[in-house]
Recover the amino acids of this structure.
């Protein structure tokens, strides 16, 4: 990929930005799926909404950590 990016005229920062942009797709899809399924579970069983909400926020934190790690790697690679 790096050779193809070099042939396209991208610099190291451009490659890092492209890589982070592609890496942010996964956590975005993951959070969307997680919240959608949590809302569906709360609608089906309102009495368990508290436990589902707590689990949802823990899942969001873990998925968001992946995006933050990608963000840090973006700055480390771009430097």
């Amino acid at each position: 990929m790096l050779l193809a990016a070099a042939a396209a005229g991208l610099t190291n920062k451009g490659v890092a930005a492209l890589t982070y942009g592609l890496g942010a797709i996964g956590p975005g899809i993951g959070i969307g799926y997680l919240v959608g399924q949590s809302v569906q579970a709360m609608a089906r069983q309102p009495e368990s909404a508290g436990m589902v909400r707590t689990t949802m926020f823990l899942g969001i934190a873990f998925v968001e950590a992946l995006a933050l790690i990608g963000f840090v790697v973006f700055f480390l690679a771009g430097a």
In short: Helices lie at 2-8, 12-23, 25-44, 49-78.
